[in-house]
Automatic annotation (TrEMBL):
Basic residues composition-biased segments: 1-10
InterPro entries named in the record: CB, DNA_brk_join_enz, Integrase-like_cat_sf, Integrase_catalytic, Integrase_recombinase_N, Integrase_SAM-like_N, Tyrosine_recombinase_XerC/XerD, Tyrosine_recombinase_XerCD
Pfam families attached to this UniProt entry: Phage_int_SAM_1 (PF02899), Phage_integrase (PF00589)
Compositionally skewed regions (Low complexity) per UniProt: 11-21
Annotated spans, Disordered: 1-21
Domain Tyr recombinase: start-end pairs: 128-328
Task performed by this protein: Site-specific tyrosine recombinase, which acts by catalyzing the cutting and rejoining of the recombining DNA molecules. The XerC-XerD complex is essential to convert dimers of the bacterial chromosome into monomers to permit their segregation at cell division. It also contributes to the segregational stability of plasmids.
Cross-referenced PANTHER family: PHAGE INTEGRASE-RELATED, TYROSINE RECOMBINASE XERC
Domain Core-binding (CB) per the UniProt entry, residue ranges: 24-107
Stored Gene3D superfamilies: 1.10.150.130, Intergrase catalytic core
Organism annotation: Castellaniella ginsengisoli
Gene it is expressed from: xerC
Keyword terms of this UniProt record: Cell cycle, Cell division, Chromosome partition, Cytoplasm, DNA integration, DNA recombination, DNA-binding
Top-rank taxon: Bacteria
Name the record gives this protein: Tyrosine recombinase XerC
Length: 340
């Protein structure tokens, strides 16, 4: 069979489809792939749900064909249909990434000679500047400006999380995937962990790529303060994954992304920051502040785990804005005269 022509060989019947236009076999394969992403690569539930919808959209474009029979032409056609339906470039790029990832996983078992989504390019996504905190705002947040020191286990956990986000430039999914040490048991195998004695974190990021991220002194101090009380959030119902996890929720399981988001925003409000602070804001701040000081784009690319330096270059625009503002304030001939 030519797996990329989209045509079935003579005598082979089309796979049976249910009322929604999906084949039961395709649904089972998709769930197996998504389960693997969740269990082994720690993809967030939000991302998994989006990928599931993307695969279902591809199935709906070709309801009488199994996914294994689709070729590059069909992938392009499906992308075009989604674009015509009003899907925005960012969503189209995510859909294509989901399809490409699925076929990368499926191709060896299906006997496909190549990934049919590999040669298809996503539409260009307009780059928007990420929202980064100023250095003073980051300091106010992490110093708990005008608040008492973190004392309870939950407060110590929060400060360790936020310090590590800012010190290491981690993604939220990377943060919650950290273990407190490397663990390998029948029920759990670590893929990301802290090496406190070495002052670093081993992080597996997007695409399964592992990088080593240095952690600053204040992040390590906050981490040690949290590890002193971490066991207080464990309970008899904590599973093997939770017992390995660096950060725990109040129910004794690995902390979820939504909890991190809510706790960070609550702290930002308490210290009086006049803006919404998302965990990714600390990653953006990490990159922007490093570039302001070091001007080493390649180093920041490595620390962020970007596959392409073009992704990192967006932070040079943030840095230019910072320099331009300083220029306007400091240069005697930069300021425009008032028209009054």
């Amino acid at each position: 069979m030519n797996a990329h022509s989209g045509r079935r060989p003579p005598g082979r019947a089309a796979p049976a489809a249910d009322a929604a236009g999906h084949t039961a076999a395709d649904d089972a394969l998709a769930e197996a792939w998504l389960s693997e992403l969740g269990a082994q690569q720690r993809y967030s539930g939000h991302t998994l749900a989006a990928y599931r919808r993307d695969l279902q959209a591809l199935q709906r474009c070709f309801p009488d064909q199994a996914l294994d029979t689709l070729g590059e032409a069909q992938i392009r056609q499906a992308l075009g249909r989604l674009h015509a339906s009003g899907l925005q470039p960012r969503s189209l790029a995510r859909a294509l990434a989901a399809w490409r990832g699925y076929y990368e996983w499926r191709a060896p078992a299906a006997g496909l000679t190549r990934n049919p989504a590999h040669g298809v390019r996503a539409p260009r996504i307009p780059h928007s500047l990420p929202k980064a905190l100023s250095v003073d705002q980051a300091q106010a947040l992490l110093d708990r400006s005008q608040l008492p020191p973190a004392e309870t286990p939950v407060e110590r956990r929060d400060m360790a999380m936020f310090e590590i986000l800012y010190s290491g430039g981690l993604r939220l999914s990377e943060l919650i995937g950290l273990d407190w040490q490397p663990v390998r048991t029948p029920g759990h195998a670590s893929h990301s962990w802290i090496q406190a004695d070495e002052g670093e974190a081993v992080v597996r990021g997007k695409g399964g790529k592992t990088r080593i991220v240095p952690l600053g002194r204040q992040a390590l101090d906050a981490l040690r303060a949290w590890l002193e009380v971490r066991a207080e959030l464990l309970n008899p119902r904590s599973d093997e994954d939770a017992r390995a996890a660096l950060f725990l929720g109040e129910r004794g399981q690995r902390i979820g992304p939504r909890v991190v988001q809510l706790r960070l925003q609550a702290l930002a409000q308490r210290v009086g920051l006049p803006l919404h602070v998302h965990p990714h804001s600390l990653r953006h701040s990490f990159a922007s502040h490093l570039l302001q000081s070091a001007q080493d784009l390649r180093a920041v690319q490595e620390l962020l785990g970007h596959a392409n330096i073009s992704t990192t270059q967006i932070y040079t625009r943030l840095d230019f804005q910072h320099l331009a503002a300083s220029y306007d304030q400091a240069h005697p001939r930069a300021q425009r005269k008032s028209k009054d």
